[in-house]
Amino acid sequence: MPDTRDQRSRQSKSHGSLFRLIAASPSPMTMKQLSMSLGVSLPTVYQNVSELIERGLVRSCGEQSSSGGRRPNSVGINAGARISLGISLAGDSISSVAVDLQGHTIYSSCIARELPRSADALADLLQEETERFLKATSFSRGLLLGVMIAIPGFIDRESDTIFNSPLAGLSDIPITLLTDGLPVPAYAEAAAVCGGCAEYHTRPSDCNMAYLSIEHEVSGSVFLDGRPYIGNNNRSAEFGHICVEENGKTCACGNRGCLETYCSATRIERDSGLSLDQFFDALGRRSAEEREIWNDYVEHLARGIATIITCFDCEVVIGGRICQFLGPHFDNILLHIGERKLFNSHDYPSVILSKHAQYGIPLGAALMLIEDFISHA
Ligand SMILES: [Zn+2]
What we know:
The chain is α+β, with helices and mostly antiparallel strands. It folds into three domains: 73 residues, Orthogonal Bundle (Arc Repressor Mutant, subunit A); 131 residues, ATPase, nucleotide binding domain (Nucleotidyltransferase, domain 5, 2-Layer Sandwich), CATH 3.30.420; 149 residues, ATPase, nucleotide binding domain (Nucleotidyltransferase, domain 5), CATH 3.30.420.40. The chain has a five-stranded mixed β-sheet with strand order 8-7-6-9-13, sandwiched between helices. A five-stranded mixed β-sheet has the order 16-15-14-17-18, sandwiched between helices. A three-stranded antiparallel β-sheet has the order 1-5-2. 38% of the residues are buried. This is ROK family protein.
C-alpha cells in the first residue's frame, strides 16, 4: 500500500532530523547516541540509517555482528556525496563558493569584472561560471544539488521575478531568464539573505540575529527563532533605508537621509575619490580629509545599528565587503552605538563583525541549498 501523505511527511521529518544530526556532528555517532538524541527507538534509527547508507549520504564507521547480519554501530556523514554552488553577482565582480554536505568550502573564486547590463548576457555569464566550476573541480554534475544565485536587490516571490536590482541592472525580470540556461537546477535569493545565512549557519538553530550587509548597497536580513523573517512582501530588513538623517541626502528609494546614502561602500568611494583599500589606508595614516568622511560615516552607522537593535533586540552582525576594513575602528563604532543605548541598559545586544568578509554571500547561497537538502533527505 502506498504511503499516505502524513506517513511520508513523518518519514521525511524523521530522516531530516537524523541526517541533520549526523551532518552536524564532527565525529561519527553511535546508533545509541542517535536514538537518545532524537528520542526514537533503536530499530527506527537502524532502518533510517540503512536507507541513508543505501543512498550514499551516510557511511558506516564501524560494524557489529547481530542476528540479522552485520550492522553499523556508528555512522558519519559522507560529506562529498552532494555539493552545492553559490554565485554572487555584485556590480564589479562575480564570486562563487561551493560547499559539501558538512558546509565545508571546497571551492572559491572571485573575478573582478563589470557585470553585463542585460538579463541575457548575465544568463550567459552564469552558465560560463557554472561550467568553469565544474571543469576546475572535476566534480560530477550529478553530485551538484544546484546553483543558488545571490542577487543584490529585491526578489518578488509571488511572481518569481527580480523586482529591482540597480547594481545588476535588472528590473522586473523573471528569475527563469537567468536560471533556465544553466546545466543544473538553479535558484535565486536576495544577496543579503544569503550573507545572513552564512553567518547564521554557525549559530544555535533557535537564536535571533540581524545581519547588516554593507556592500555598494546597504541591506540586511533577520533571523527569528531559527528562520529568516522575510515580511509580507519579501522586503523585511531593508536596513539601508532606515532614516539616519532627517531631510538628508536623497536616496535611490525616493526618500531622504537613508542609511545607504551615508554608509554604503559607494559613499566612501564617491566622497573620497579613492578605492576602499586606498581610503582605509589613508585613514590609517590619519589623513584629515578621510578622517572627516569617516567620522560622519561612523555617526550615521551607529544611528542605523541602534535603530535595528531598538526594533529587534537581538545580536547584530555587520557583514559585506566593508567589514574587512572595520577591525581597527570597531571599538570606536561600538562606542558610538553604546551612546544610544535605551535606558542605559546593561544587557544591550552585542554587535559583531562577520567572519565571512569576502565570500559570505556566495557561501550563504551555497549553504541554503545544502540546508534544504538535509531538511528533506
Ligand atoms: Zn532609501
